[in-house]
Amino acid sequence: MIGAVEAIRVKGLSYSYSDGTKALEDIDLTINEGEKVVVVGPNGAGKTTFFLHLNGTIKNPGGDVWVFGKKISDLKIEERIHQVGVVFQDPDDQLFMPTVFDDVAFGPVNMGLDEKEVEMRVHKALSKVGLEDFEEKVPHNLSYGQKKRVALAAVLSMEPRVLVLDEPTANLDPKSRADFINLIIDLNEIDGITTIIAMHDVNALPALADRVYVLNKRVVAEGSPREIFSDWSLLKENSLEAPDVFKLFKVLNCFGYSSDDLPLSFDEAVEILTRTIEGTEGHIHLHIHEHTHKEISDVMNSYNHHRNGKE
Amino acid sequence: MIGAVEAIRVKGLSYSYSDGTKALEDIDLTINEGEKVVVVGPNGAGKTTFFLHLNGTIKNPGGDVWVFGKKISDLKIEERIHQVGVVFQDPDDQLFMPTVFDDVAFGPVNMGLDEKEVEMRVHKALSKVGLEDFEEKVPHNLSYGQKKRVALAAVLSMEPRVLVLDEPTANLDPKSRADFINLIIDLNEIDGITTIIAMHDVNALPALADRVYVLNKRVVAEGSPREIFSDWSLLKENSLEAPDVFKLFKVLNCFGYSSDDLPLSFDEAVEILTRTIEGTEGHIHLHIHEHTHKEISDVMNSYNHHRNGKE
Amino acid sequence: MEYPEIDAYASMDSPIHRFDPRAKIVSFTLLIFSFVFVNEIRIALLGFLFSFLILLISRLPLAFALKRIRMVFFFLFPLLLVMPLTVEGREVLNITGISVSFDGLIFASLIIIRALAAVTLALIMLATTRFDITIKALYALKVPGTLVQMLMFTYRYIFVITDEFSRMWESMECKGFRLKANYHGLSIFGNILGMIIIKSYDRTRRVYESMVAKGYSGKPNTLVHLHMSTKDYVLSTCMVGIAIFVHVYQLMFTV
Amino acid sequence: MHISDGVLSFPVIIAGWAIALLLNAVILWRCKCRHDMAEEIPKISIMTGAFFVASLVHVSIGPTSVHLLLTGLLGVVLGIMAFPAMLVGLTLQAFLFQHGGITTIGINNVMMGVPALLAYWLFRYGYSKGFNPSALGTFCGALGMILSGIFLALMLITTGEQFTEIAYAVVVAHVPVMIIEGIITGSVVTFVMKVRPELLPLEREV
Ligand SMILES: Nc1ncnc2c1ncn2[C@@H]1O[C@H](COP(=O)(O)OP(=O)(O)OP(=O)(O)O)[C@@H](O)[C@H]1O
Ligand SMILES: Nc1ncnc2c1ncn2[C@@H]1O[C@H](COP(=O)(O)OP(=O)(O)OP(=O)(O)O)[C@@H](O)[C@H]1O
Ligand SMILES: [Mg+2]
Ligand SMILES: [Mg+2]
Fold it and tell me: DSSP letter at A269?
């Protein structure tokens, strides 16, 4: 993208915890304004640690993070939290005020805004997450999905330009998960907020990523979701998997369905199928020839690497 | 199954928490020895509450639970924990001893076994979960996936005949998740342990379920995974979703792929595809006829109910 | 926030590391009590040197040990400044009418030396045994089971709660909060603390449930394998001997 | 403010141990009669863990920083079980962080545990008389702290007259901390009353 604004730039970032655990090594990356980026990597890969650098919670003289062209260490707190908002995984860790209103107002109050402005922001943030009438509720008594929304609203009220989310879909039931994903997509597409997300849920990943970084202490790979999921040895080395739909189309390819577009999600699959079938004058042949079985077992072996010995 | 032994039988079980929250209403169900059963339902449906009844943690005079034909309230503690072992969601709640060895030995010691036997069981349980050399480790130095395994080992060491797991795959990276699922399947298939699992992860569900109960305070439905996932209005009412692969084959059906066997997982999909194509003398036609678009949009609407307004 | 990792070097090897944990607890505790009640500064100094000698024998990294020992020094250091002025006694110096007394100086030094000896011994005792084994040794020493279990579970959950607390703290800092000693800051801190208390309280129920699921009935449930060897008997006899000797010697000395 | 090893005299230390052990024994015995110990043990342990962690926080006042004791709060939240909880907490603090001392665990337990008990009784009494819980919390938090300070001063004076001036200084030094703990305890009580009132032992006896 020519002329795109650099939202986040990280250069040669390394970090070790005080007990000696090396969490990050020489991270280099650039994220442009308006992008949706997902960071994946196994448990303990340093994703959360990395996110703590993005808003300056970890102060690290050994590496530099620029936010919209300014060094994060030079930004004042109020400026910084206006640029980058981080939503952590466990909503209970983020809701510590007696009411939903207070929790959502917490950030704006710390930014020194006046009362009117604070109230306006709280209403706006709560309506974004669909919890307009919850202001007076006690966060502790909400359902898990609702708590996650309040935690998000509490960051949205600071109106950050970059939104960082650590495992947004964990522990949610399927409906709440789908709702939450849509909410994030809307924030990105409608409000133009740059989103950076860490997650393990590969089936939800494609909807949330224009670009994927694979992190395992260092940046192991970078690319579109399609590129990342096509590289099965990369997946294997980093304890990852490809979405089921993607794997299935790999198999369909073996059966003679030929399309270079491999879909990553159910919706995309339907669209691609329709397009392909229409493009081939209304029909597709699936058939078995002599190499098919071999090809299929190759695909299975590459992608089901975590199930070795089970087939 | 004729002549099957009833592992768990529950009759007319209702429960309210002391603050008045109605968590369970009139639950009736029977689970046979050797079955793999999954309980699904939205957040707050009462799954965890139900599980607390299965091993007598909640003492409830208002409902009856029989374990292998005996009323649970009549069983002595040592007998009871030998019959049913429950692994809860958060491993930190279950690893309360200073070392892994102590945690895994906790149950056997309470059962009054002698030292030799306790040690043998600890070794056996740890080797089942693949953590042979971890005996002297301290829980806070383990990764999340490892903690989950230790929590499982701590229950396996009591050698229960029924294993109850609350959200075993939550928060795990894809590899750990796949490993954990395989471990559970092995315990069921090789060791013959009856498994009862609560989870939100529909893509992993088919591998872990012979039969599914949908719980939402009461038992809303019961059936094979295929039956449950075919009933989209049931799914919708209970905040559930069908696995992506299953939905995709519904769509393929619209394109003229005709098979009544809809696969639920990637592996099954490959197997069914191969079988179907071989059965039709080596090929399948996918084509678009006049009703196709309508049919597809019907499928999409029924199954993507949680994404309304997004398409 | 740091984990309280007192036993980071417990897997090293030294005669002190090999000392039976029960014997270690008994003899070190006696030594501590003995050195703490010495009234004669020279004997106190000998006690401190003896403690330091054991520290050297234990091969614990000095940086690790000193970092913890010096805390006591900082804590008691003000005594050294205050007591020479407040305690009456032989005057060594007179600065513009304020008399600095020798007795005060000696007395403050005595307190600090005794404290240093005690903390050094306590540190060695804890740092040379894995903490879980120390707790089991307490149980083997017939300390009431209820207390031992409370120590054990509290120790375990300190780590869990520390993590939880750090995460909450991080998320507050992300929203621009800094703890200052003003009303707003403290009452927000009260909220976090309240949240920690509520979360811990909810956890107590879940932990109890999972304990009951494993047949817990309130009794301690660990296997303890500890064997006293001849060396352990000799070593503990020596230490107990020194602990007693110090006071006998002091009695004779002062008479 | 914990007392370190080496400061107090032998009789004071021994008296401390005697009172501490006796009170603990009585409280645990009473608890055993009224409740299921199997349920109480994990409860006290985890709550003690929470207070332990909270007391590691340093609040800076001017050039120095103080770490919190939370004596009054412990009493208000845990009731009489605050006393054994304090014993466990102090033991771990002495062993893990070298705060306080080994020989002084007993006396420290008395010095902070008795104010905690008083704070608890006062809180319950005040609540039953219809006082505002937040204000009561603030008062009990402050009271717990200043009582600890006064006890400490008394103990120093009992040990020897050399400590008289220091004892006064100790009481004065406790005043700012008293205010801090009062505010914190008050806001914790407000928070808990709003979010999870059943957690405070107001109606039931512990
Ligand atoms: N406060 C800490 N002190 C010491 N080590 C830590 C701390 N926090 C994390 N670590 C370690 O740093 C490494 C990176 O941890 P991090 O939490 O960033 O991983 P992650 O990628 O977020 O993992 P997950 O997917 O499980 O959330 C891990 O090895 C972890 O054990
Ligand atoms: N100790 C408790 N006291 C009062 N109410 C409770 C308690 N535990 C659970 N509940 C309530 O009982 C209902 C059932 O809770 P439960 O934890 O069994 O649901 P669940 O199906 O396990 O949900 P999830 O999928 O989120 O784990 C919920 O409304 C919950 O708020
Ligand atoms: Mg993380
Ligand atoms: Mg649950």
Answer: H
B253: tokens are 């059906």
3-state secondary structure chain B: CCCCCEEEEEEEEEEECCCCCEEEEEEEEEEECCCEEEEECCCCCCHHHHHHHHCCCCCCCCCEEEECCEEHHHCCHHHHHHHEEEECCCHHHCCCCCCHHHHHHHHHHHCCCCHHHHHHHHHHHHHHCCCHHHCCCCHHHCCHHHHHHHHHHHHHCCCCCEEEEECCCCCCCHHHHHHHHHHHHHHHHCCCCEEEEECCCCCCHHHHCCEEEEEECEEEEEECHHHHHHCHHHHHHCCCCCCHHHHHHHHHHHCCCCCCCCCCCHHHHHHHHHHHHHHCCCEEEEECCCCHHHHHHHHHHHHCHHHCCCC
Do the Cβ atoms of B106 and C152 come within 8 Å?
A: no
Q: How far is C167 from chain A (nearest CA, A)?
A: 6
Residue B281 above 80 pLDDT?
no
pLDDT score at C221: 72
C/D interface, count of CB pairs below 8 Å: 215
Q: Which domain holds residue C77?
A: 21-129+227-254
Q: Do A138 and D191 touch (CB under 8 A)?
A: no
Sign of CA dihedral C124, C129, C135, C140: negative
Question: Does the structure show a pLDDT above 70 at A283?
Answer: no
- Averaged pLDDT, B298-311: 56
Whether residue C177 is contained in a domain is answered as yes
Q: What top-level class would CATH report for the domain B6-226?
A: alpha beta
Q: What percent of chain A has pLDDT over 90?
A: 38
Q: Is residue C68 included in any domain, yes or no?
A: yes
Q: Where are the domains of chain D?
A: 10-193
Q: How is domain D10-193 classified at the CATH fold level?
A: Arp2/3 complex 21 kDa subunit ARPC3 (1.10.1760)
Q: Which residues of A touch D190 (CB under 8 A)?
A: 98
Examine the domain organization and report whether C101 and C65 are in the same domain. yes
The predicted structure's pLDDT at residue B218: 93
**What is the count of structural domains for chain C?**
2
Pair (C104, C188) in one structural domain: no
- Is residue B286 scored above 60 in pLDDT? yes
Instruction: Please give the average per-residue pLDDT across B163-175, as a whole number.
Output: 88
pLDDT band, residue C253 (cuts 50/70/90): confident
**Per-residue pLDDT tens for C121-136?**
999 999 999 988 999 8
Q: What is the mean pLDDT of chain C?
A: 87
Q: Does C221 touch chain B (CB under 8 A)?
A: yes
CB contact under 8 A, B102 and C222: yes
Give tens-digit pLDDT for B136-155.
Answer: 888 888 888 889 989 999 99
Q: What is the pLDDT of residues A21-46, one digit of tens each?
A: 888 999 999 999 999 999 999 888 89
Tokens of B186: 């092995």
| Closest by CA position to C120, among listed C186, C62, C203, C76 | C62
Q: How confident is the model at residue B296 (pLDDT cuts 50, 70, 90)?
A: low
Q: Is the CB of A89 under 6 A from ligand 1?
A: no
Kindly report the nearest CA distance between residue C14 and chain A, in angstroms.
24
Around ion ligand 3, which residues have CB less than 5 A away? A 48
Distance A106 CA to ligand 2 centre (A): 28
B17 interface with C at CB cutoff 8 Å: no
> Are the C-beta atoms of residues B42 and A173 closer than 8 Å to each other?
yes
Give C178's contacts in chain A (Cβ within 8 Å).
77
C44 and C119 co-located in one domain: yes
C141 vs B305, higher pLDDT: C141
Q: Residue A311's pLDDT band (boundaries 50, 70, 90)?
A: very low
